[in-house]
């Protein structure tokens, strides 16, 4: 099995330089770091992370915190793409990742306590931003570094984060429907305590206000088909002239599409739908789903870069905004504008 000395010899550097390069130290130039990493890959070198952690009493592992809503985690490829981006960057810098999950806020906070106390993890990436989040409060108590994917609810100027401009993304989605003649547009969400959902709603509301159109809200998870049918019947009883929906993400849009298509009366109306995240399932929908691409893998990559960087205690927080774009497919139809 190759050692760090073998890597150093092949790269033509000292063992200490090779070790620093493998850990992404900023004092090592990029050409030298790339040369060391290339040598490590050629030798199939794998650092002994456990031994390093015992020696330093600190971990080169990044804790990745998933939201409590486990149904959303395991059914939505958005989270998997973010984790993929984080893992790719961490791997290049010789760091590992470990997931923090929980079926309740209490369990999630406890698991983070264990990761900090026993795993000596000092850096975390949160894959969500939520109002009054006990996880954030606990991380502050421990005075550990954390990066949020999503706009923070509090201390935005003191918190490093990566996000899309979700207000503008919501604006673009609603305007796209207005440009196709729709005037009665519903906004479908599940939890407005999530910053990403509330920001997209604000963008939707901005377009409605600018065009003097009504805000038409629907909060529904579609956890069962029967529950979805019941919710939509109630919704259409109150809003019979709705012709289109902005859904806060693709998975919710696809659940809505399925319920609509299974009812003959609703199917014939051909409601227009637009979602967010441009998930792998968008192309499999019928019709294929128009969606706002937010590039979750890049969100993860940028968050990992911030987490791995050396930050002086007095340094200002870092904010990275990843662009979005509309991916036009076939789920939005042009109609004659209603008055």
TrEMBL record:
Is Methyltransferase set as a keyword in this record?
no
Q: Kindly give the Pfam families that the UniProt entry links to this protein.
A: LacI, Peripla_BP_3
Which intervals of the chain are annotated as region Disordered? 1-24
Task: Cite the GO molecular-function annotations of the record.
Answer: DNA-binding transcription factor activity; transcription cis-regulatory region binding
Q: Boundaries of each HTH lacI-type domain copy?
A: 2-56
Swiss-Prot/TrEMBL keywords: DNA-binding, Transcription, Transcription regulation
> InterPro entries of this UniProt entry?
HTH_LacI, LacI/GalR-like_sensor, Lambda_DNA-bd_dom_sf, Peripla_BP_I
Is Transcription a UniProt keyword of this protein? yes
- What is this protein's record name? LacI family DNA-binding transcriptional regulator
**In which organism is this protein found?**
Lactiplantibacillus pentosus
